[in-house]
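FAQ: What does a multi-protein file look like?

Like this. Sequence, then tokens, then the next protein.
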Amino acid sequence: MTGPTAGPDGVTPEVGPVVPDYTYNLEQTLSRTLSPTISRALSRQPKEPKPEQAPIAVAAPPADKGPWGWRWRSADWFITAVVAWSIASDNISYAIIVPVIPFHLEKLGYDNLSSRTGYLLFAYSGGILLATFPVAYFFHRYRWRRGPLIVAVFIMEASFIMFMLGNHYVAMICGRILQGMCSCVVWTVGMALITENIDEKNLGKHIGIALTGFTLGTTIGPPVGGALYKRLGWNAPFIFCIVINAVDLGVRLLVLEKRLMHNWHPTEKARLEVIAAAEAAAETQTTDTAVAAVPEQALTPVTPSRPATPVPPAEEKHLSPFGVIVALLSIPRGMAALGIAFIFGLMYGAMDASLALHVNDTWGKDSETVGFMFLARGAPEFFIGPVAGWVADRFGPEWLILPAILINLPWLPLLTLRKSIVGFFIVFACTGFTENAINIGASIELAIVSKMREGIGSIHQFAALNLAFSVSLAVGSVIGGQIYDHVKPKGWDVICWMSFGGSILLVFPPLFWAGDRPIGRRWRRRHAEAEAETASPTVVEK
């Protein structure tokens, strides 16, 4: 190290002690020691504050923007009410001829009345069977809900005119097939409208309320049909159905799907955009945190040996109609629910095909009395729908299905008694009360099961349930009609005991498979634990 040099005048300036130059750029030091994210943050220069500006006034969306009444038209209660009314009008169309058709066929000169009535009920179920697969497959891929429901009403109105004016038996068969196809749309697309627009935690309650439409239809249809036929003739019941379905068309036109609200109302669209922005910001923050925690050496880009192949986005899985049935049957809970619907349909169809003739042959009563018998059966069922849905939501479907089956068992043999028509009314009402609870429990159970397998949508679950019920209803109608005609005078007794045997078979599937924790498995587990405690050696303290 050399000393200080002299200036131009030869005088050496006075300087302090020489200090080595250890001054470094703080930014370079931080870039070597800290992560790149923090160094970039420190290197940013503070921006000069911008002059304050007056806030820009944003005009609120106009009050008349969007469809009229969009809030209540897309509300949970309105969607459920529309589906319940659609189910009611559909079941009125099915049940209104049950007390009427045997007497009308007799006037037209036909014989084997119970068998021919069974074939007409079979035609209705056949229409459901024909439409179930295409409806479920098409409307699962293309999620239209209100449109198919509206078109189905117009076809239903045409079928009433065909059935009313066509006195030939073949024309009646064709009209019933069309009615069954429209019924399929209600029970698949309509029920899917509920499951796709209502929160899952309240799903059981709303399904229970919607299925009260089934009770309403089967309760109102027969007495109204019998009374109108007796007083005003053959055309009157079908004119009544045309009016009921016109009202149904009006409410179906009003309903709005929640998934389409962001296209119609700016506040709903803004709400969805805010949610999407918040999710994107949270995802970006998580990514930045992960990058900041990585050392600088790990951030060095690496050249891949071969170009990366882009991963295509995952496509929604679509099962064929047959694949949906196989998928549901592969789940024990799904198999139990479909089995319950199948046996329930057998019992229902067999009794519907022969009840009017049994009452007429035993007590000499006409169609009006048979109609009031259905009214007595359906009146208690109005209360079971919401209660059954609440029980399924609160305790599980297993605590609804199994007790209802056990309560239903003793009433079926009592239907064979012939001493009192009043007693028959009471017993018949008790069977309807429990059977409705079983039907609601199976519907809720299948709605839960459908979410366990990829490729099964909400429309698939009700299509499968509708298929199982319609096939068994068709088979039961034919079997019931044939048994009553060919096993006289004990045909009705055979049908009742057959239903009793089917109900015994119904006990086992829900006992071991229904619900998240089936009752039978709980008992077996507790029994095994009790045996293990008994078999374990007892340690005696000395």
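And here is the next protein:
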Amino acid sequence: ALAGGIDISAHWMTDLKVGVCLNGFWFNHEDCCWASNETTFQERDKCPQWKSWAELMVGVNE
């Protein structure tokens, strides 16, 4: 159980460096975009619920 918690936390903290999920800050990038109907396999990084810090602070995508 401890190893699972560490693994989940590591994925979340890695994605938190890049951006945040608008549906809930506790979601990592994969979980945030999992249910999105607008995300395709080819463009899986273009998820409307996931915003990079640059998009949130400046309004410009990196």
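Q: Is there any per-entry metadata?
A: Some entries carry free-text notes. For the entry above: The first strand starts at residue 19 and ends at 21.
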